[in-house]
Amino acid sequence: MTNLMIPTRPTRPASVTARAGTNIALVKYWGKRDAALNLPAAGSLSLTLADFGSETAVRFASDAGDDGRDRVSFGGAPADAKFADRVRRFLDLVRSRAGISFRADVATTNTVPTAAGLASSAAGFAALAVAASRAAGLRLSPSELSELARRGSGSAARSIFGGFVEMQAGTRSDGSDAVAHPLLAENAWDVRLCVAITAQGEKEISSTVAMDRTATTSPYYPAWVASVAADLSTARQALAARDLAALGAVAERSALRMHASAIAADPHILYWNPATLAAIATVKRLRADGLLAYFTIDAGPHVKVLCASADAAKVQAALAATPAVLRVLVLAPGPDATIVNES
């Protein structure tokens, strides 16, 4: 922890704004070995996206907050109690690490739908980790930021880095080795992720609840966890070779196995809707016609399709023509989480 500075208090009130992109797991994270520390049961591998994420501003000061509490806004309005409490618990971690007691003003805006299965929490807590730690006077390494972000959301550890990223499950009980690291920079491979939006609003079951239910009730869960190591090895090799077919095949396999374990939970967890299935059929048809396109689905109904940049327009058009698909976004690999303003 040689980069860590622990001031007794900030030298001046600082406002820091940070931005982070959401990430989509190609080898999935599903289940925890320690819920309190957000330690994953297995590793994962993801792609961080450009222009699809969160921007968060944090200011620690003696005059911040109401009635001794942090003031949290989302999209320009006061945040709901559940989100605000989650942010406050995270800020307590930062305050403890920095040795300060100031309350904070936190303002977050998203360019990704919230709680819809599009990894909004990954971007949100990555941006919060960067902004809050800097505003508190800490200077954390990327690995330390990844560990901190993980405490807010397991997948946020990956959004600290751009491009293709691997998250280690780690073995230490304190979680210090459960961190992410970059594998391939954002501009190292000209691929795109086409996102077929198949529903509006928030999903019915949160990822946290669904993961816990799957781990405790699904007879397929142990097999799911045991399968991840081999998928990670295959995905790393595919990345090194820029082998889209190999990476796409492991992405589809990982997604289907994750959802199979959730569907087998008691009571079952089924995020898919008719448009989800229709979009999968569209992808399979494109591939049968010779176009390399591969789907993945997170804890939600939306379908994400990995393809070469040159094929993205064709994939977008095919998905847009799929019955019940509401709209299709085409997203490029994105950069590391970064500070965009400090004053």
Q: What features would you describe in this structure?
A:
The structure is a single chain. The chain has 343 residues and is α+β, with helices and mostly antiparallel strands. The protein has helices spanning 81-98, 120-135, 142-152, 156-159, 207-217, 221-241, 244-263, 274-288, 312-320, and strands at 14-27, 32-34, 39-40, 44-61, 71-74, 77-78, 103-110, 164-167, 180-184, 191-197, 293-296, 303-308, 327-331, 338-342. Strands 1, 4, 5, 6, 7, 8, 9 and 14 form an eight-stranded mixed sheet that branches. Helix 2 (120-135) packs across helix 3 (142-152) and helix 6 (221-241) packs antiparallel against helix 7 (244-263). The longest helix has 21 residues, at 221-241. It starts with 13 loop residues before the first strand and ends with a strand. The model is unreliable at 1-10 (pLDDT under 50).
Task: Summarize the SSE layout with pairings.
Blueprint: E1 14-27, E2 32-34, E3 39-40, E4 44-61, E5 71-74, E6 77-78, H1 81-98, E7 103-110, H2 120-135, H3 142-152, H4 156-159, E8 164-167, E9 180-184, E10 191-197, H5 207-217, H6 221-241, H7 244-263, H8 274-288, E11 293-296, E12 303-308, H9 312-320, E13 327-331, E14 338-342
Helix pairs in contact: 1-2, 2-3, 6-7
Features of the shown structure:
single chain; 343 residues; Ribosomal Protein S5, domain 2; Alpha-Beta Plaits; 2 domains; 4-stranded antiparallel beta sheet; 36% helix
